[in-house]
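Why run this: before we spend reagent on co-expression, it is cheaper to look at a predicted model of the complex and decide which construct boundaries make sense. The entries below are exactly what would go into the expression plan.
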Amino acid sequence: MDNNSIFIEKLRSSGLRPTKQRLEICKLLFNRKKTFHFTINDISKMLKNKTYKKISLATIYNTVHSFKKKGYLKEISVNSDKSYFDTNTSSHHHFLDVNTNELIDLNNEDVDNIKIKKNLPGKKIKSIEVLVKIENNN
Amino acid sequence: MDNNSIFIEKLRSSGLRPTKQRLEICKLLFNRKKTFHFTINDISKMLKNKTYKKISLATIYNTVHSFKKKGYLKEISVNSDKSYFDTNTSSHHHFLDVNTNELIDLNNEDVDNIKIKKNLPGKKIKSIEVLVKIENNN
DNA sequence: ATATAATTTATAATGATTCTAAAGTAGTGT
DNA sequence: ACACTACTTTAGAATCATTATAAATTATAT
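The model came back. Tokens follow.
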């Protein structure tokens, strides 16, 4: 059983039709040893090289958004003109290197358990995201 | 001594000429009991009402950016199509209500001291920002 | 095979932000 | 008060990411 059929299954099971375009994007995003961070522009360029037939930019946007909605991707909160996505959907945090603009994973184990002592009536916590900005040492 | 002369001093001392436009924006942003969160669009609309003469949008952008650079404003990391700014420049965190898109301050005292156990060679921590997403309780 | 609904696509539209270059203004020295 | 210079403001154009549109294509159930 190759990866493709796994992706087909995954897509079908979440109500998404396994189209050529979605499968290409799956392969690009999930056929990896390590998780990674990307912008739409990043994968748009990568897909231009990898695939014989171009995938429309609109489709890339659509696909990334539906993958996010299905929980296969997370969006990372950084103040930037573009959106960053992460194929690591487990609960974790990030370093942002302000000199290089690089995002680096920060595992939950590397951050002491965060306790929020304030709570708002009628509201519950959905997620806690920590962004640690780092810079050169000198 | 009224507030205006305080603002004039503040601007001069940071190398910014106290122009009419900058003073108007100072009054709008800093003549308040409580700190607040805003987008450029927010204060653009507010300035339209408050001031007899309109301030150009470009000037609002320029001013907010120079105030940020001088440390009078902070930019908040939220994934959004617009930038959010905060007149509270002390070290603190935020709730984001995903149902209303409202930002709410979360004081440092309300978050247990955060300890980052991982560090990267040649890099030092510049800031730690926590975003707690909250949602309706039902 | 056909019908139907989902998907893709190119392109236009939108909206936030930045750029540009000309006109206006503050601060300094005379 | 006057003139000089550098800084600032301005309107509008340009840019860039993202979303909307509406027609063409494709996946799937019957």
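The two ends of chain B are 52 Å apart (CA to CA). Residues 16-17, 19, 21-22, 55-59, 62, 81 of chain B lie near DNA strand D (CB under 10 Å from a C1'). Bring this page to Monday's planning discussion.
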